[in-house]
Amino acid sequence: MSAPEVHVEADAGSLARAVAQRLVDQLVTAQAEHGAAGVVLTGGGIGTAVLREVAAVSAGRPELDWGRVDVWWGDERWVPAVDDDRNEKGAREALLDVVGVPADRVHAIPASDAGYDEPEDAADAYAAQLRAAGGGALPRIDVLLLGVGGEGHVASIFPHSPAVTDERPVVAVRDCPKPPPTRVSLGFGAITSAEEVWLLVSGEAKAEAVARALSGGETAATLPAAGAVGRRATRWLLDADAAGQL
Ligand SMILES: O=C(O)[C@H](O)[C@@H](O)[C@H](O)[C@H](O)COP(=O)(O)O
């Protein structure tokens, strides 16, 4: 487990650009060291803004081979594939279809119309997909991106919800306070297996959650963002408003 590092940019735009540069660098390094790179994407405003910037940055970085990047998701909304609420849809429009990530490298969490009756079945299927990619264990994830909610949720793990103690790598989540209410999410076992966890946070509404998460006084159950740590690095990438109570 790694101690958190904090990096602050002036505003949301410069944060998205800085994260995009850093992510492209990291994926290039991972490909040089391991042949392929693995990244977990997040939904949410700043997460999607980062993906748009990654598309722009990567246009000038031909050494990043998108044919050797495995793309996973930290969470997904249990809605049909064409629904605008799908994190996959936003990521495809912002980045994946722009840079042309091959279909067999894009590992989307199943949509509600993908053939699974319940989100629990989709969660089990996604866990099986992860294990297959990792040869029985979880695959190597170089960078796992997370947004943070004002009450401290990450992915679709909300404070005091059953997901905070669920040891399965992927869980179904019901009755989420943030709509839509039904989701599929990585659990902490999968999140903390990543080499690096990057928490992307923008805006004053998140400042208290950021300060509490970094205070050392919270647990994953009370403030899930406090439990989101990477093996090698945990980076809090903030704009000035989100860092306002540090
Ligand atoms: O799909 C989702 O809803 C998320 O993955 C969620 O965890 C999100 O990242 C945060 O709620 C932050 O979202 P914002 O940046 O839009 O506030």
Could you characterize the architecture of this molecule?
With 246 residues, this protein is of the alpha/beta class. It has a single domain (4-239), classed as Rossmann fold. The chain contains 6 helices and 9 strands. It has helices at residues 12-34, 45-58, 87-99, 119-133, 188-191, 207-214; strands spanning 4-9, 37-41, 69-73, 75-77, 143-147, 170-173, 183-186, 196-201, 233-239. The model has no long low-confidence stretch (mean pLDDT 97). It binds 6-phosphogluconic acid. 6-phosphogluconic acid binds at residues 42-47, 74-75, 87, 147-149, 153-155, 178.
Quick recap:
This protein is of the alpha/beta class. 31% of the residues lie in helices and 18% in strands.
In angstroms, what separates the terminal alpha carbons? 22 Å
Question: What is the highest CATH level, the class?
Answer: Alpha Beta
Question: What is the CA-atom radius of gyration, in angstroms?
Answer: 17 Å
Silhouette: globular
CATH topology: Rossmann fold
Assign the structural class, choosing from mainly alpha, mainly beta, alpha/beta, alpha+beta, or little secondary structure. Answer: alpha/beta
Question: What does the largest sheet look like?
Answer: 6 strands, parallel
Tell me the domain tally.
1
